[in-house]
Specification:
The protein is an alpha/beta fold. It has two domains: 109-364, Type I PLP-dependent aspartate aminotransferase-like (Major domain) (Aspartate Aminotransferase, domain 2, 3-Layer(aba) Sandwich); 374-505, Aspartate Aminotransferase, domain 1, CATH 3.90.1150.10. The chain has helices at 14-18, 35-38, 74-85, 108-114, 132-149, 161-178, 196-203, 221-227, 250-259, 292-295, 357-393, 424-433, 461-479, 484-487, 500-505; strands spanning 153-155, 186-190, 207-211, 232-238, 263-267, 287-289, 310-312, 324-327, 331-334, 410-412, 440-441, 451-453. The protein has a seven-stranded mixed β-sheet with strand order 1-7-6-5-4-2-3, with helices on both faces. It has a three-stranded antiparallel β-sheet with strand order 10-12-11. Helix 4 runs antiparallel to helix 11, helix 5 packs parallel to helix 11 and helix 6 packs across helix 7. The radius of gyration is 27 Å and the shape is globular.
């Protein structure tokens, strides 16, 4: 059945079938067309004076037709975007079960601090003498990042995790070339790694050599040693890894890498599981990026704004890129070679300005409000919550690496769905009907039909209990053969299931008005 706005109703939605609405709205669930469908080209919410006539310099490039943008009145504009926002799912809406991405609660205190006068309104081109407080804040945050990781230096300018990976690997490359080891071109990357790891290494001219993940989901030192040659530059290892497991042989792996003359890059995406519990520097790590949005509660971004500082060991400290803050009689943002800092060998510059100031403020506010004991507890609670989910679902959903404790995220596979007619994708879509964003699906790639769930430390036991009960109900439906509940899901979302493969291969990126139709003659 289709309603007036073209929205398919659920097969069992008797209320929608028995009581269709003229508007296509159902109570406060309001159908919202595209802006181009409801806007009017002759309407604008702003009155501007007519521009003075000038001689055009565009020549043949000048527009000779209407621009085609539509407008709305101010109330209509506000309603349009508010309604669209209500169709989003976010951490303020409910439990966000994505694994690996760590959709953490953003405390409102952090937002208040980021908007303080003198922090929220400064400009990156201001004279350094006028932003001493901001530079001190960056330096203070850098100090705590070094303390928490046991590292000697930190590059604050990278804008995100992948940007941080690039920074760390460029520092390693610069160190190798400075020591006459530029011939080292091989980077070892575990098969279970984030895809950005091999991409980053290849981008700057390294050759990627995979290292297998063993039956317990971890990398074994014997496999690393077997891959080591005089041409190996580094290993890129995630810890805790993307299977949600702590790499128990990490110290031995680091020792083997260093003995071979190579460097240890740690993907710090999952640092939120070990803050206050283990310091990467003590484990032998030489470089590691830190996602402030995952570990220290700054907004997740979605392309920005983001921040991915990179901590470096003594072996790499001299290669921190420009710009960096140096504290002397005053705080100085060092942007070129000077005599202020002895022994500096920056490999270059990663970005125009010194990182993302708003994210620095939020991360420091999180650190100061929690303290060392609070950050440690956050890590413990994240691990506790993930293991609570793992243990509560283990009798119904299969665990690819056995019933061993996990870290901050619980990983299931699709073995338990065999012969049910239900796939991982079907199960995830049915979660939408229950009001939950699906977990991470089909990643890591080393696990078939992977379902990666990360509750974070922010969720209460009551919140987790409802989530677990919902997944148990779905799991029992699947094993009972109630396939209809899954194959058409989601039934209750504003739109039904999309053909995602077709959408990816043939995206429609431009709205075109529907063809006019002639009304029947009377």
């Amino acid at each position: 059945m289709m309603n007036r706005q073209g929205r398919p109703t659920a097969a069992g939605d008797t209320s929608a079938q028995a009581h269709p609405t003229f508007t296509g709205n159902y109570g406060l669930e309001i159908e919202e067309p595209l802006l181009f469908e409801i806007g009017r080209a002759e309407t604008t919410g702003v009155d501007l004076p007519a521009p003075k006539k000038v001689k055009s310099r565009l020549g043949k490039l000048a527009r000779d037709g209407a621009i085609g943008l539509v407008g709305l009145s101010e109330p209509e504009t506000l309603r349009h975007y508010v309604r669209l926002s209500q169709k989003n799912f976010g951490i303020d809406t409910g439990l966000f079960s994505l694994g690996s991405c760590t959709m953490k609660h953003n405390p409102r205190l952090n937002e208040k601090m980021a908007r303080l006068p003198g922090l929220g309104d400064i400009h990156p081109l201001q004279p350094q003498s006028t932003v001493q407080g901001a530079l001190e804040l960056i330096d203070t945050l850098a100090h705590y990042l070094k303390e928490l990781t046991g590292m000697a230096a930190v590059a604050m300018s990278p804008k995100a995790g992948a940007h941080g990976e690039l920074c760390g690997m460029m520092a390693i490359k610069a160190a190798l070339e400075a020591s006459g080891q530029g011939h080292r071109k091989i980077v070892l990357v575990p098969e279970s790694a984030h895809g950005t790891n091999p991409a980053t290494a290849a981008l700057i001219g390294f050759e990627v050599k995979p290292v297998p993940a063993q039956a317990d989901g971890t990398v074994h030192v014997a496999d690393v040693k077997a891959a080591l040659t005089s041409d190996v530059a580094a290993i890129m290892l995630t810890n805790p890894n993307t299977c949600g497991i702590f790499e128990k042989e990490i110290v031995e792996i680091a020792a083997a890498i260093h003995k071979a003359g190579a460097y240890f890059y740690c993907d710090g995406a999952n640092f939120n599981a070990i803050v206050g519990k283990a310091r990467p520097g003590d484990l032998g790590v030489d470089a590691m990026h830190i996602n402030l949005h995952k570990t220290f509660s700054t907004p997740h971004g979605g392309g920005g704004p983001g921040a991915g500082p990179v901590v470096l060991s003594e072996r790499l400290a001299a290669f921190v890129p420009y710009p960096f803050v140096h504290a002397d009689k005053a705080y100085v943002l060092v942007e070129e070679a000077t005599k202020i800092v002895k022994g500096e060998k920056p490999f270059g510059r990663m970005t125009a300005f010194h990182g993302q100031m708003g994210m620095f403020v939020r991360a420091l506010a999180y650190m100061l409000s929690h303290g060392s004991d609070g950050m440690k507890q956050a890590s413990e609670d994240a691990v506790l919550n993930a293991n609570y989910i793992r243990a509560s679902l283990a009798d119904l959903m299969s665990l690819p690496f056995g019933d061993q404790p996990c870290m901050h995220e619980a990983l299931f596979d699709d073995t338990w769905l065999k012969d049910t007619g239900v796939t991982t994708l079907d199960f995830a879509k049915a979660m939408i009907d229950e009001g939950y964003h699906p977990m991470t699906m089909y990643f890591p790639l080393v696990v078939h039909g992977a379902m990666l769930i990360e509750p974070t430390e922010s969720e209460s036991k009551a919140s987790l209990d409802l989530f677990i009960a919902t997944l148990r109900d779905l799991a029992m439906s699947a094993t009972k053969g109630e396939v209809d509940r899954f194959k058409g899901a989601p039934y209750h979302a504003p739109r039904r299931r999309l053909d995602e493969t077709r959408a990816a291969r043939n995206p429609v990126l431009r709205w075109t008005p529907p063809a006019p139709y002639a009304e029947a003659a009377e």
